[in-house]
Design brief:
single chain; alpha+beta; 13 helices; about 35% helix; globular
Length: about 400
């Protein structure tokens, strides 16, 4: 049997893992009649050969939809089925938009399935469908994807995998290990500015009423306790395999596996707002309403009325620009701010080999940017080169460079 790929569709129709006692029937309403144009394949054949993929934001958002939709933001829980074509592009075939039952959660989801079309009001609806999915994906990326999720009935506990997850290691390393210790020397360059930027983020970016709440769809429903440390959550980092039985390392390891901070990752690049909206302001228009008629008479205006407002877009663009700039003293992946970090020739040789691999990656990115035939879906009307994974960068807003530490 073909090995399943990340994101590939494992079962059809997609099934929900939400507690049925709390949320009723949340399984997908997408049927075989919605899945067409599979190049002669049956759904079973396409699944077996990893030709069908799913972008599933249903279960993670459905428990919060009722609260989110009481704000100015209006979203759906979405499932998107995509087909991998022979030319290597993913084509969306069906999008499911779901809302909680208007009477109570235990009655399940109210879902509508839309399929690919390009003509008239229905064609505009398909564009709105994709926008709802992108709004979910943007919010999921900003507020959930960086989190470690554990859903236990009505309790939702989240921890960051990046900014907050690194805090216990910084604290434990500074408290338990000498600056001369090998592990301290190894980790210290990756801790540069992390605690400072996390503290600033708690004050202005992810605080209640902060900038992130103004530009990403969950708004005030995202508010969580963001100060101090929470203990007792066991880390899954597997560091026990490298920690020996010395007293200092034992204390360091216990400290890192017993503490998990409650911070939040600063924003990442999101793209041009009309193409990558982070908020939606109204639900799908109903037929025989002025809003629905506008889908055909003025589709661009109807689309812009639904997505992020102009003020929110400008705020989001400004925030992204600030957070994406490299400072003059930035240290990038494969670099060190001190030249004489070790005299161990084996370590120096390994570090040199790592830098060569980074150069090979940059060369490979350039080759892929130049291969317009194979990577035809990489760009739209504007041919912007992909450079985000270039290892190094100049100062400022460059769209390149991987910082050596967890900062912005």
């Amino acid at each position: 049997m073909t090995r399943k790929q990340p994101g590939s569709l494992g079962e059809f129709p997609p099934m929900s893992k939400l507690d049925r006692e709390l949320y009723g029937n949340q399984n997908s309403s997408i049927t075989k009649e919605h899945i067409r144009d599979l190049d002669g394949l049956t759904i079973e054949e396409a699944i077996k050969n990893n030709w069908l993929f799913i972008l599933d934001h249903h279960d993670v958002l459905m428990p919060y939809l009722r609260r989110i939709n009481t704000t100015a933001t209006k979203i759906y829980a979405t499932r998107t089925i995509l087909f991998l074509e022979n030319n290597g592009t993913l084509k969306p075939l069906a999008i499911e938009l779901s809302l909680p039952h208007p009477d109570e959660d235990q009655l399940g989801a109210i879902s509508t399935v839309y399929t690919l079309t390009h003509e008239g009001a229905v064609g505009t609806i398909w564009q709105l469908d994709k926008a709802y999915v992108v709004v979910n994906d943007s919010g999921y990326h900003q507020l959930i994807c960086h989190f470690y999720e554990s859903v236990k009935r009505r309790f939702f506990f989240s921890e960051l995998h990046t900014h907050a997850a690194i805090e216990p290691f910084i604290i434990a390393t500074n408290r338990q290990l000498s600056v001369l210790h090998a592990i301290h020397k190894l980790l210290h360059p990756h801790f540069r500015d992390t605690m400072n930027i996390n503290a600033l983020a708690r004050q202005t970016l992810i605080n209640a009423g902060g900038l992130l709440e103004m530009t990403v769809f969950p708004t005030r429903t995202n508010r969580l306790p963001l100060t101090g440390l929470r203990y007792g959550q066991q880390s899954k980092c597997g560091l026990g395999t490298i920690v020996h039985s010395t007293t200092k390392l034992t204390k360091w390891f216990k400290k890192t596996t017993r503490s998990t901070p409650g911070g939040k990752k600063c924003g990442k690049k999101r793209g041009y707002p009309p193409n990558r909206p982070a908020m939606s302001r109204r639900l799908m228009p109903e037929p025989n309403t002025p809003e629905y008629d506008e889908l055909e008479s003025n589709p661009k205006k109807a689309y812009l009325k639904m997505i992020t407002s102009q003020l929110q877009s400008v705020l989001g663009i400004s925030l992204n620009e600030i957070l994406s700039r490299h400072s003059s003293d930035e240290v990038f992946l494969g670099q060190r701010d001190v030249t004489e970090r070790t005299t161990d020739m084996e370590a120096i040789k390994a570090f040199g080999g790592f830098w060569k691999k980074l150069e090979e990656i940059e060369k490979r990115i350039d080759e892929m940017n130049g291969d317009k035939k194979r990577w035809r879906n990489k760009v739209g009307p504007v041919d912007m080169q992909y450079t985000l994974l270039y290892p190094s960068s100049e100062v400022g807003l460059t769209g390149t460079g991987i910082p050596n530490n967890v900062s912005i």
